[in-house]
Amino acid sequence: MKQKKWKIFRDPIHKDIYLSPEELAIVDTPTFQRLRGIKELGAAYWVYPSALHSRFEHSLGVLHTVKKILHHMEIIHSISLSDEEKMLVRLYGLLHDISHIPFGHTLEDERRLFPRHDEDEARIQFFLEQKDLSQAIHQTGLEEPLKRMLIKGESRPSYLTEIVSATIGADMMDYLRRDTYFCGLTLDYDDRILRSFTLEDGRLVFNLSKEGMIRADVLSELVHLLHMRYILTERVYFHHAKIAASIILCKAVELAIQEGLQKKDILNLEDSSFLFYLSQRFQNHPIIPRLIHDFQSRHLYN
Questions:
Q1: Looking at residue 285, what DSSP letter applies?
Q2: Which tens digits make up the pLDDT trace of 41-82?
Q3: CB atoms within 10 A of CB 18
């Protein structure tokens, strides 16, 4: 039987990203492809016009960053995970955003109109039970431990989830680079920080010492990563114009909820189809259509 080949995706942040046949089968499902239509930064494109990158490419980037972390743990610290563990943490990185809804951070974190995507077990279960994605995950042979990681945020050992979701992990390291790049901010970090990821007592940690001495370069790079996140928070995530746009959208959704909109109504939608759905379903409402029009026209309120 002819062996299936790995697929290469070209990415502006990481260059070549390699996906195994099992990972590609997941990516090619309509359920996963929906992430192409969900912007990583929500309404930030009204401030930074090129901030149109989606959760699709971010998910690929997280998978790739997981691979780099595992590689450095093996060659620098002689820590080698089993093939099953490596695949499991890669799949977790690939699927960590699968349950995002349109403008998720705006509606979940800023206005709290819906539960957070990573805390809503019923929503995560909904996406994992979609026939196309469920079949692709089943083919990996890791269905049960992967579901436990995605739904409960639990893994045995715990470092399998921490490699992706820790305060400084693969998720953060991809979005820092991706968000700054597409917002035109000249910020970056040194890839050598990847050499410091290691495991201790079953937990993901950073190796801050060498021959009994604190490594100031590693410590300062960790501080730099947190500073990058602060800069993004200040200049992008909470930019006053971005917040103004988000408020308009949140008010429209808040009114729609009062008129009967439920979470289940929007689970399969992307950003653009979500806005169209609201404008059509509530076209006779005295306020909602105007709010959607103002949001799409960048008519921001003072």
A1: S
A2: 999 999 999 999 999 999 999 999 999 999 999 999 999 899
A3: 13
| Tokens standing for residue 117 | 């995507």
Q: Residues 6 or more apart from 94 whose CB is under 8 A from it? A: 23, 26, 27, 59, 60, 62, 63
Q: What are phi and psi of 18, to 5 degrees?
A: -100, 130
Q: What is the DSSP string of 148-200?
A: HHHHH---SSTHHHHHHHSSSSHHHHHHHHHHHHHTT------GGGGGGEEEE
Q: What is the pTM of this model?
A: 0.95
The interaxial angle of helices 240-258 and 288-296, nearest 10 deg, is 150
> Domains of the chain by range and CATH?
7-296 (1.10.3210.10)
Give Cβ neighbours of residue 5 (< 8 Å, ≥ 6 apart).
Answer: 21
Q: Are 288 and 282 in contact (CB under 8 A)?
A: yes
The whole-number average pLDDT for the span 254-272 is 97
Tell me the pLDDT tens digit for each residue of 11-49.
999 999 999 999 999 999 999 999 999 999 999 999 999
